Amino acid sequence: MRNSSVILASSNQSFLLKNASCVLTMNPRQLDNGAVDALGTLRNINILVRDGIVVSVEPAQNYAIIPTDARVIDATKWLILPGLIDSHVHPIFAGNRAAETVMKARGLSYEEIAARGGGIRMSSNSTRAASNSELQENFLRHAQNALARGVVLMDAKTGYGLSAEEELRHLKCIIDACEKEHTRPAIAATLLGPHAASPEIPDFDKFLDTLLEKLPELSKIANDAVAKGTLVSAAADIFIERKYFTKEQGERWLNAALNLKLDVHVHADEFSRSGGSEIAFSLAKARKQLPLRKAKSGRVLSVDHCQFATENDLSKLASVGVTASALPCTSFVSGIPYVDAKIWRASGVKVAIASDFNPGSAPINNIWLACWLALTKCGFSLNEVIAGVTINAAYALGAEHGFGTISVGKTANILAVEGNNPEDFFASPIGDHVRMVMRAN
Q1: pLDDT digits (tens, 9 = 90+) for 21-68
Q2: Residues 162, 92 within the same domain
Q3: Neighbour count for residue 45 (Cβ, 10 Å)
Q4: In angstroms, rounded to a whole number, what is the distance separating the alpha carbons of residues 290 and 287?
Q5: What pLDDT is stored for residue 2 in this prediction?
Q6: Domain span at 426
Q7: How far apart, in Å, are the Cα atoms of 194 and each of 24, 96, 235?
Q8: Are residues 291 and 377 in the same domain?
Q9: Angle 132-159-240 from CA coordinates, rounded to 5°
Q10: For a pLDDT cut of 90, what percent of the chain falls above it?
Q11: Could you tell me the CATH number of the domain that includes residue 294?
Q12: Distance of CA 411 to CAs 341, 352, 439, 440, Å?
């Protein structure tokens, strides 16, 4: 990408983003005419950052004296907004599934390819064969590529192990890589052990039993990494779909995770109305979860995919503070339906938009294409898309108090793209208009 830079805003450093043409704070505000500016748009603004914290967001004319200790960055030609958040990502794997692209071009579906030994099973074989150092290197490369495109927080799902022991190894690889390298997005780790059938234990119930036995150990390691500050949050996930895991199996896994103080996500209703959204609602309701979630862990955070979720399903999720995540790159690559923004909008559910980067159904590590498709193929509005990769995506990861807005007192995770207006967010479908990424370190 041309002329882009990554800045780690750490302690004992000050930065002044000077005279930004347009700033989207993502803090909604009432306008004089009574309308609401959902993007929190400000013009000709200086943003002062000290020790990784935003300390002022003021009109440029208010700055009579520029702080002498601050590195001044000319933002005159930039659109500035919160750093982006990719809330559904599968970044730890080895190998590729390029042959499946050719198979899809011949008309085979995702499910048909999986039945022939492709899909998740193929990625599992490659990933199991990789060493710890190779997996860590791959994970960091994927994370750093995302950071260069403006992603300051990303989900990191396991799931290509298909055994309890491999799940543990992959989780440790994510944590070890994060401890070794800080030039990367902040990471929210997600345990996706129940992703597909295990080659050693093809019975889904028996395989789930082995994962449940290991879950206390996995949750302790993940929660300890959160307490240490290595991870932003820790969660569990499951793929509920025909020919994969059932509603009943989903309830077992997700209830166990919630009881261990893990947050939960659900791969839901992608190929059929398989019940994932219903489970998320019932679990959140049973725990008396409200739209304004107060707990810091053990929350039902999101349901993802949702092509076959109904407006009523999504409305129920909205009532208990569960976000719905649209993953349009998967539709683009795999030829499955795009979600319909009109249905989601009518439901009132919070909408997150994510890349679903993975080696098979969405081998596109680029949140910008997901945004472009959400706008042009799903029918989401400009405001909905930008919220979907900032404040709503933060909500989908349970990280809304630290990410998703530009606010005084909040960590300085800031993105600058070339432009002067909110519409310039869509100047490129691949992010080559990114000019600066500031990541609080």
Answers
A1: 999 999 999 888 888 999 999 999 999 999 999 999 999 988 767 788
A2: yes
A3: 23
A4: 9
A5: 47
A6: 5-82+405-440
A7: 39, 21, 13
A8: yes
A9: 175
A10: 85
A11: 3.20.20.140
A12: 31, 21, 8, 6
Q: Is 306 found in the same domain as 166?
A: yes
Instruction: Classify the C-alpha dihedral 415-421-423-429 as positive or negative.
Output: negative
The values of phi and psi at residue 422, to 5°, are -55, -35
Q: What tokens were used for 126?
A: 């490659």
pLDDT at res. 64? 67
Q: Are residues 249 and 177 in the same domain?
A: yes
Task: Indicate the Cα dihedral angle 300, 236, 135, 206, nearest 10°.
Answer: -150
In the numeric block, which tokens belong to residue 212? 């449940």
User: Do 53 and 113 have their domain in common?
Assistant: no
- Decide if pLDDT at 3 tops 80: no
User: Amino acid identity, residue 342?
Assistant: K
205 and 70 share one domain:
no
Based on the fold, state whether residues 238 and 210 are members of the same structural domain.
Answer: yes
Residue 377 has pLDDT above 70, yes or no: yes
The token pair at 187 is: 């990471």
Q: What pTM, to 2 d.p., does this model score?
A: 0.95
Given this model, what pLDDT does residue 434 score? 97
Percent of the chain as helix, strand, coil, to the nearest 5: 35, 25, 40
Domain limit, last residue, from 376, 396, 416: 396
Same domain? For 74 and 101 the reply is no
